[in-house]
Amino acid sequence: GHVYSLTEQINKFEEVTLPELEAELGCNSTHLLSKYLFVVGVGGNDYTFNYFRPSLNGSTILDQGFASNLTNSLSQHLKKLYSLGGRKFVLMSLYPIGCIPMVKSFKPKQKYCLRELNRGVRQFNTQLKSTADAIKEQMPGSNLVIVNQYKIIMDIIKDPPSKGFKDAKRACCDLIPLSEGGNGVSCRKGGNVCGDRNAYVYFDGLHPTEAVNVHIANKAFSSYLKNEVYPINVSQLAKL
């Protein structure tokens, strides 16, 4: 299916969603939006299917400029949402792409996470934090929270049983192998699915299971560790 860019999503939000919201509530949306939480997660597809894709068959050349371009673009989109009335933003960091089953399908001899890919992800996440700190000064009255998915998921991968999981390497579903024309991500149509989805970190070759997303959400709302949620948690943000 078609993947909408963030620009397209925000345009649809402004041109379609907001008029419908105002018509339903019978008032201007600008004041209302200041109470809403805008959850924004970007960069995953940019890194997985563009920046990192050639390196799955070769070496990775890390370029800080790629991370800067993405975060600079993100800052412009956040300013646009701010101009529409948004004031509370939750930014999701990238999770450890070097550990996803898709990577292992391209690198079958790789026993552990691909360090080069995770280093690139950490570059982006560091830049994301710096961007959030800088842009807050340009958007008076705004508050930005970063949920560090990287650390939260890595903590699971390092010791799955301690977090209630059993398998942090394989996908829950039956992936189509590359030898059969698969992409390392998609589940086989009619293929087997693991009996206990809550025991797996990944459902397919790319996406975490619902159990992992619930774990991330709980951390986002209640953690007081700044290396998990920065600078405050989502529960505190919602009360502002």
From TrEMBL:
Q: Does the keyword Signal apply?
A: yes
Which UniProt keywords are listed? Hydrolase, Lipid degradation, Lipid metabolism, Secreted, Signal
Stored Pfam families = Lipase_GDSL
Q: Where in the cell is it found?
A: Secreted
In its keyword annotation, does this UniProt entry include Lipid metabolism? yes
Give GO cellular component annotations, separated by semicolons. extracellular region
* Gene Ontology biological process terms in this record: lipid catabolic process
Taxonomy, superkingdom: Eukaryota
GO molecular function terms attached to this record = hydrolase activity, acting on ester bonds
Tell me which PANTHER family the record gives: GDSL-LIKE LIPASE/ACYLHYDROLASE-RELATED, OS06G0560700 PROTEIN
Which family is annotated? Answer: Belongs to the 'GDSL' lipolytic enzyme family.
| Protein name, entry field | SGNH hydrolase-type esterase domain-containing protein
Q: What organism is listed for this UniProt entry?
A: Citrus clementina (Clementine)
